Known about the structure:
In chain A, 40% of the residues lie in helices and 15% in strands. Chain A is an alpha/beta fold.
Amino acid sequence: MIYFDSAATSFQKPASVAAAMWEALASMSSPGRGGYPAAARAADTAFQCRSELAELFGLRNPEQVVFTLNATHALNLAIKSLVPPGGKAVISGYEHNAVTRPLAALNTQVSVAEAPLFAPEAATEAFRRLVVPGVDAVICSHVSNVFGFIQPVEEIAELCRSRKVPFIIDASQSAGVLPLNMEALGAAFIAMPGHKGLYGPQGTGVLLCGDGVPTRPLLEGGTGSMSIQQQMPDFLPDRLEAGTLNMPGIAGLLAGVRYVRRGGLAKILDHEQHLTRLAIQGLENLPGLRLFTSPGLQHQTGVLSLTAEGMDVEAIGSALAERGIAVRAGIHCAPCAHRTAGTLDTGTVRISFSDFNTPEEVARLLRAIRGVLGRLF
Amino acid sequence: MEHYIILARSVTYAQRMRKSLDRAGIRCQIFRPPRDLTELGCAYAVRVAVSDLPGALTALHKDRLDPVQIFIYQQGQYQEVDP
């Protein structure tokens, strides 16, 4: 199989990730649950992972790095910490259901800062009109999971700081690809998966918490600290980490983070954008095909959506799967993004690259798409 | 052997303390203190040599890592001391 669905989860991982997970299974129990060597090894690994994530994302205190199940879990924690039932939130026009469903569950008054695709200035202006005192939180995906659109989070962060409105960044598609500095941005929270651009295993996610930002647990339970007290501890990470941590996952995530830091974000982004350019060059002249691209990829990562006139996107996805190529067709759990881009009725076929894809794989993808279009037309 | 233990609010906090002390060149160990030392329940602490306590407190203060409590261990018993 040739895998081009890394915006959902990166399937190919560094070999060190699986090795670290095996090592964790063989030698680690649970951090904060004992003074014996297996517990100490687990605690050291969890702390090392927090510390390296803190360094990667510009946080001084590793206690502000909270492990979660995935980005959805992290976003739920962030949103439900800041937005009360019936509260007010401003979101971008490119949000995932991981943002919009928790807001709907809270019966939030949501204002959408709509802007055309690949138009960051328009996005900033849309936020400028809507971010006013009294808004409980501004939430914005750094990169659209459907279109790879890089949103202007630095400008939105500056706006939120000046208007004293908490800012939540969904870094699901940018963590491990684009630089993000939590303290420079002054964000309240940054949520991310461990299993996409950070190359950790599924079942891992991270919530970076701003210093002094109020937090509300979604779960209560054991933390290995303040055990007599029947309320959750008031300090991080324990406050948001009830129950046993996923140590094999965290060990794998640490290996993934080290892979990313060794290679460097810029190199990974360059590689993924290079592959995206190859795909665009090979597809842009095909009749009936519509590609969603930012000129020169100025505002786009290694995610490429397309539609074909008169063809169902799921049929294209299935036909590519028959040829051993994995892409994602449909709405991508992001009706908000499709509504903004005008593709809600059709959906798109999404091709998303990782550091492990090659130009040869892209060449095979192009041949397969040409074959599929020829057969289905 | 006499030593001091510096209580931390959590295992992660104890690890931050150890990192701070490592940077200051002070040897320490993380361990679980006796149950009766704290009314908080499960706890973690770092253990340092008696001669290292002033330097340890300076390093922790510099890194804004305030101890929950400090105890001295001598003659088989722990006794709380002021920071």
